[in-house]
């Protein structure tokens, strides 16, 4: 099934204790699209770029089946730019620069060809943009997945709550789940968030894996223990892309299939951390992914013998 | 197979954001012994208490097959006492009081009856005490597991390194693994620690689960997502007791069996967090444990369908 993806297509500059990326292509929709393209043949991207953005990257997306009719190009304007610096633990980071540029007054437009998509991935972005996309759809999609972050909880909680009421799956990290629910226990947080709209919740815990909740069930997918994390930027977006990409490919939104999708999202995210920017996702082969999936299977594989 | 356990038998007073325990029985060997008794019928405890320690708890241990010939009782002296306060996250804590009392000059004595034990659990304690126990054994046990903490890395690193050279399995938490190895990546930390003596390493990550490493393999066991963590004190000791208790019960030290032991240790530790002190372990039934083990199985259970 085809997929609509909404999110930023932008420039990042990343500093870590181990190196700097310089200005590289990033943005939620870039990572989501590249990751989902490992699973689905047709995507429709909805985003905005300036005329400083490399056409080669747009063509790369197109070569992967990502239709760019909904990717607005603004002449004489600059693309969104984010600069950040990771702390020693590579989990927390400070924002050094945020230049909204074309994003400041972005009005998304859903192209006609995208109306047939049954799966929608609302990547991290202003909730009012996410709402506008949902409003433009002729019919309720089969599955809407929302990714967001604490920034929008701080400054746009009411619009965010409106989006929440209209999505099936929410993906956020553990601190965001605590902030959104006001509960410290993730189990309690999940129970509360599942009353806000989504019927399924993914709590991403970075190097500590991811939890999948619905009303009755919990599933845990580990993160792969990595020797080196070069750059975690985009790992959450890559996770989301793999997650919804697999669901759209299999067209199966059961909890059993979502468990597989969480593992595949985690596998994709593990690649994203291996290089700066989107490079690792661009060069990824199916054979490499298959090997990595097997490592996830092995990592949690045990058979228990109950006491005799 | 029978088991020697070494560690404190003591009093704790615990404050959390949600309540206070008052003065309760605690200590590494108390938790280890209670946890291991779920699996093994014969243990030999090596520790020291003052005459303020409740005889009823000693009898409880004895009723669970824990022989107390190596539990020294000092007349006119007080038991070890620790008081601590947990932060809001329930992971980090401050020590408010440490009264060594009988522990100040403890000289452990391995009773003759314990010499037949093939499994030895060196609970968190002064490394010189752990070394003394190993020195007193007539023969190398089949398996020695060491638990320790950052405190001993700070003040007794050299004796600790001597103990490390003589054990098969080390269990420490993630921050301790980083401190001991000087490596931030847990994979690199594990590789380095595995050159220091132990052939197997367990890195405990609290609510984020536990990693099991040997030279060639990695296994990850999740922690059970809990609605409430009332008191994590003793969870690591309870984990260690379940881990070695299961290995001693099955008398199988293969990596495959250690994976099961890590899951069982995690299951036992999840109970320890449910009440202050050792109460929850005392009342635990086999039926409750069986149900909990099934929850761990379900938590990570998935089947992956590779892309067609």
How would you describe the overall organization of this protein?
2 copies of one chain form a homodimer. Chain A is α/β, with parallel strands linked by helices and 308 residues long. Chain A has a single domain (3-299), classed as Ribokinase (UDP-N-acetylmuramoyl-L-alanine:D-glutamate ligase, 3-Layer(aba) Sandwich). Chain A contains 11 helices and 14 strands. Chain A has helices at residues 28-36, 55-63, 127-136, 150-155, 157-164, 174-181, 186-193, 235-250, 255-272, 279-283, 286-299, and strands spanning 3-6, 10-16, 19-26, 43-50, 66-67, 71-74, 81-86, 93-99, 119-122, 143-147, 169-173, 200-204, 210-213, 218-221. Chain A is globular, with a radius of gyration of 18 Å. The termini of chain A are far apart.
The percent range for helix content of chain A is 25-40%
* CATH-assigned homologous superfamily of chain A: Ribokinase
Briefly note the CATH topology name of chain A: UDP-N-acetylmuramoyl-L-alanine:D-glutamate ligase
Largest interface: A-B, 44 and 44 residues
Low-confidence stretches of chain A: none
How many helices of chain A? 11
Structural class of chain A: alpha/beta
- Name of the CATH architecture of chain A: 3-Layer(aba) Sandwich
Annotate the secondary structure layout.
The structure is a homodimer of 308-residue chains.
Chain A: E1 3-6, E2 10-16, E3 19-26, H1 28-36, E4 43-50, H2 55-63, E5 66-67, E6 71-74, E7 81-86, E8 93-99, E9 119-122, H3 127-136, E10 143-147, H4 150-155, H5 157-164, E11 169-173, H6 174-181, H7 186-193, E12 200-204, E13 210-213, E14 218-221, H8 235-250, H9 255-272, H10 279-283, H11 286-299
